[in-house]
Amino acid sequence: MGLFMSEFISRFTDIELSKLVLMALIGGISSLLSNRGLAVFNDGLRPLISEYIEGKMNRKILAVNTFALSFGLIIGFGIPFSLLSSIILVHSLLLGTDVIGIWCANSRRGSICASLIGSLYGIALLVGLKSIVNLFAILPINFMEQLSKVGAPIIVCFSLFPSLVTAYQYSYGKGLLVLIITLISYLITENFGILSFDRYSQMSVKLDPNGMALLFAMIGMFYFAMCEKRPQHSETAAILRDKSVGLFSERIKRIQKNRGLFILNGGLTSVAATTSMCLLAESPMSLQLLANGETTGAILVALARAISFIPLIGTTAIATGIYSPDGMKFTFVVGLFTQNPIIAFIMGGIVIAIEIILLSKLAVWLDNYPGVKACGEYIRIAIMHMLEFTLLVGGMMASNAILPSLGFMIVAGIYLLNRSAKFPLNNMAIGPIATIIVGIFANIICILGLK
Q: Among 101, 290, 306, 353, which residue's Cβ finds the most Cβ atoms within 10 Å?
């Protein structure tokens, strides 16, 4: 322990103060946004936070789900890539601030605690990244990497919810048609969605098939919703015109009211992405290119990825009223392109401001269509059904990876017994909670010398 602290202090004193302050500010603001339910980095969390805000989920269940969906990705994905160079993969930071913000109380004191802890986390990540991995390696069975599998099905299945919405609101046949469009979009992007930048680097960028599938699925869903005509009766039409605040625009107002925090965080993120700071990278590919000094290739990779993630981040933000702390990832493109920290700060803030304006314009436009307004509740229901199913499947996959066969049994047992419990858990919490139980149980078995 003494050796660990000595190494930590030594590395702390070697890092520039400006970099420590920058990481502390990004970590603190991102944790605050998460605590207030305004923004989370993990796309799968946005519908859950929306449920909590509407009083349909308590804070404890939300906290457990946040931990299960985010923490495994930090240990199994974010930190290992960050260890490849001195640059931190942004997932390591912002997935952590998701957890910190949600686990702190929903109060003024809780917001202050979230900001302070988030700031300390940002500094600790910069200083002692490798030490975090070593800490979890102490466990006889380190199940954190397997824990990331809990949220794996969500990434693949999230693009299915528009077909469910269409089926719920209109008909099974129309829902099936949107599903077919989703699958075809995925297959086309998976096989042909590759952008090559041979002129600038030897790497190529693959468009995210899940994001593109979601884009075309949403287009299909909104097509059917927008085909629903306004009522012709004059009194009804007048009532609809007088209703100035619609479903989606009301949710986006939460983001607009706090745009100052988003603009500030966007500017700081752009500064951290500049080559002069070289603190954060938005993806493993751009991280590797930056580590090799290929800035132009990193810019092109970041731009392609930002474009491909617009559907996922934009649609979840409009549907839930919860954004991402770094926006639609264009802040990284700005930071890499400008390179100058001062210009990057200004441009990063402007980019986030433009994104929020466009979101609000899109939300108001969608609210002008009665079919789109009506699909708001169906979106909530469809996302909840999708999450319940995928979290259970993910929990069983992760548990079986931790404890083969017995993991399946434990998760299934907890799920089935929960139905007869006096105070049953929310179905979405079963997979994450059961996986954590399996991980603890696996370590106990290992310590006892049992198979």
A: 101
Q: Residue by residue, what is the 3-state secondary structure of 352-391?
A: HHHHHHHHHHHHHHHHCCHHHHHHHHHHHHHHHHHHHHHH
Residue 406 CB partners (closer than 8 Å, separation 6+): 438
What is the distance between the alpha carbons of residues 428 and 51, in angstroms, rounded to a whole number?
Answer: 11
Give the pLDDT band of residue 238 (cuts 50, 70, 90).
very low
Q: Inform me whether the pLDDT recorded for 407 exceeds 70.
A: yes
Under 8 Å CB-to-CB from 61, ≥6 apart: which residues?
Answer: 425, 426, 428, 429
- The secondary element (H helix, E strand) that includes residue 194 is strand 194-196
Query: From start to end of 254-339, where are the E strands?
Result: 280-281
Euclidean distance between CA atoms 150 and 432, whole angstroms: 7
Q: One-letter amino acid identity for 248?
A: F
Q: What SS3 class is residue 41?
A: coil
Long-range contacts, stretch 310-315, CB < 8 angstroms, 24+ apart: 310/211, 310/215, 311/211, 311/212, 311/214, 311/215, 311/218, 312/43, 312/158, 312/208, 312/210, 312/211, 312/214, 313/43, 314/359, 314/362, 315/214, 315/218
- How far is Cα of residue 182 from the mean position of the Cα atoms in its chain? 21
Q: How far apart are CA 294 and CA 287, in angstroms?
A: 10
Residues whose CB is less than 8 angstroms from the CB of residue 336 and which lie 6 or more positions away in sequence, other chains included: 273, 274, 275, 286, 290, 295, 298, 299, 302
What token pair was written down for 28?
Answer: 């603190």
Number of Cβ atoms within 10 Å of the Cβ of 30: 35
How does residue 3 score in pLDDT terms, banded at 50, 70 and 90? very low
Torsion angles phi and psi, residue 367, rounded to 5: -70, -15
Q: CA-to-CA distance for 169 and 63, rounded, in angstroms?
A: 31
Mean pLDDT of 106-129: 91
Cα separation, 90 vs 231, whole angstroms = 48
| 440 vs 242: which has the higher pLDDT | 440
Classify 104 as helix, strand or coil: coil
Q: pTM higher than 0.85 for the full model? A: no
